[in-house]
Amino acid sequence: IDKFDFFVDEELKELTDNIVETNFSIVITHSPPHGLLDRLPGLPNIGSVSITNLIKKIKPRLVLCGHFHENVGTATFLDKTIVFNPGAIKDNSYGEITIKDGKIETKVVKV
Fold this sequence. Notes:
Number of strands: 6
Structural class: alpha/beta
Strand content: 25-35%
Number of helices: 2
Strand order of the largest sheet: 1-2-4-3
Helix content: 10-25%
Distance between the termini: 30 Å
Radius of gyration: 14 Å
Mean pLDDT: 86
Largest sheet: 4 strands, mixed
């Protein structure tokens, strides 16, 4: 899948070296982390290992991603991080996120 621009691990590491874990952080990225919402028919997991490593490091509460329109939905990583691919309006769906009292709820809305 070399038609997409991407960061190599070293470049992403340099960009994120000074980011630290907080009580409540949100990461917004185009690609999903490796192993979550990243499967396409006939292919192995093709998400970003760099993003997975970033999640392990800073432990965000929410990761918003997309890229793979076939993988709309919600997954949980390490029992703390919610990974949400809300879909694309061009594909007749979008996402809603509710954050209340530290609890996060995600919902895919079909239009």
